[in-house]
Amino acid sequence: MIDNKRSKRLKSLLYTVLGIGLVIGLWQLMALLLDQPVIFPPAASILSSLWQGLTDGSLLLRTGYSLRLILIGMGLSVLLAVLLSLLSMLIRPFAKLSHILISALDPLPGIALLPVAILWFDLGEKPLLFVMVHSILWPMLLNILNGFASVPVIYDEVGRSIGLKGFHLIRSVYVPASIPSILAGFRTGWSRAWRALLSSEMVYGVIGNRGGLGWDIYSKKVYLDMPGMFATLIVIMLIGIFIEKALFDNIERVTVKKWGMRI
Amino acid sequence: MSLLQIDNLSQRFSNAGQQHTAFSELSFTLDAGEFLCIIGPSGCGKTTLLRSIAGFLTPSSGQVLLNGQPVRSPGQHCAMIFQTFDQLFPWRTVLGNVSYPLLVQKKAANKRQAKEQAERYLDMVGLRNFSSYYPHQLSGGMKQRVAIARALALQPSLILMDEPFASLDADTRTMLQRELKRLWSESGLTVLFVTHSIIEAIALSTKVLALGAGPPSLRLFEDNPVQGPRGQLKTPSSPGYSEYWSKLNAVVRP
Lengths: 263, 254
Known about the structure:
CATH topology of the largest domain in chain A: MetI-like fold
Strand content of chain B: 15-25%
Number of helices of chain B: 7
CATH class of the largest domain in chain A: Mainly Alpha
Helix content of chain A: over 70%
Largest sheet of chain B: 6 strands, mixed
CATH architecture of the largest domain in chain A: Orthogonal Bundle
Number of strands of chain B: 10
Order of helices and strands of chain B: EEEHEEEHHHEHEHEEH
CATH class of the largest domain in chain B: Alpha Beta
CATH topology of the largest domain in chain B: Rossmann fold
Shape of chain A: flat
Distance between the termini of chain B: 35 Å
Number of helices of chain A: 11
Structural class of chain A: mainly alpha
Oligomer: heterodimer
């Protein structure tokens, strides 16, 4: 049983390595065929730029700065989403208000709010966080509320018949029953956070105290540092893969998958 | 005083401007320790009656009194067992499904006590070895047994069962009927049991209530005349079985 699991894990690792190798190989082939290293840099120069950025610390510093902002943005958004979803469940008219807010504000791109945010909060981290929370909150809230709305009636009735009411019913029945939707909301929020942060930095340069990965790409563009830009993109993708595998996959494994719930 | 008193109870719904009466002007009383089976054709309001007693529905008129107190909302006064196998929380183990309600209703002082109590009732339904399983790992019959254990463990004044065995195969159904009858006779519970099956009603009940298209909705409410050994199912070989089957059949399917 354990051997089986280990061999499965090895197999999946092997496929991942093979997949990455294949992509790098094809990239290198394209670079050779095109033979325009400034526009389409060879894989080796991208990797060496990545290595240099990681070892001299410049890329790590910017990654750390972006991650810090994203985590603060996610934290604030989760707090607000929990608060708004609870109010929507406990007070009927509030649910209507939430849905109106979502349908009005969710389609509004965060970047469109950046000029307003800068005038309100002045330059610094505050306008960035404002735009990020706006980008994360609405899809997250929408997913949570949709999850609550599609909880099977039988769970609600069983919960009430054993004596659960109000907040306790939501915490002990609605939340576990909606975990697939809640996770979908977190995933969407996570990717929206990256989009909001990077686009803000690229349009307005350094808005925060220091530059993050968006600023990194922007400043590398000025120097036509093509390998460096791709190196930064690779860092963003690696973080995405890491969070998906280390966080979301594990949460799913110990919840919905273990409980036999459909995802 | 009777345990349960139904007073002139009616349930009406309006759907798309049309008034629909589930049942009307229903009155009866039930003493503690009885096993009442509610029968009647589809759509005669059996489930609606059960849901009104559970407190899920507010009566259109009349009232439900349990121990003399009007029932206003679902909760601790009675435990409900549904037909669907999905009535267990998939995110809790078998043990958790039984012990958690004990903690909610403060019928156990702490988690350890709740666990011990839950294990005792899982033992009664023969599922002690499945305590750590999750519901999706159980068969339909096992899930219904867990639901029965969950209800019994709460020791409610009244257990309401809405066709709990209707989706099971015949063998499992008979086995669970037998178990339920044994548990009922051992525990002194009061059970209201909705069923489509006249055979099931005769086999299990001490009293029978038949509903029909109203008004009046109440067609029959009487002691089950078929006698059997206490704690066991009544079978076609029990004296008076065939006569009573014919009588109920004529009431339910005129």
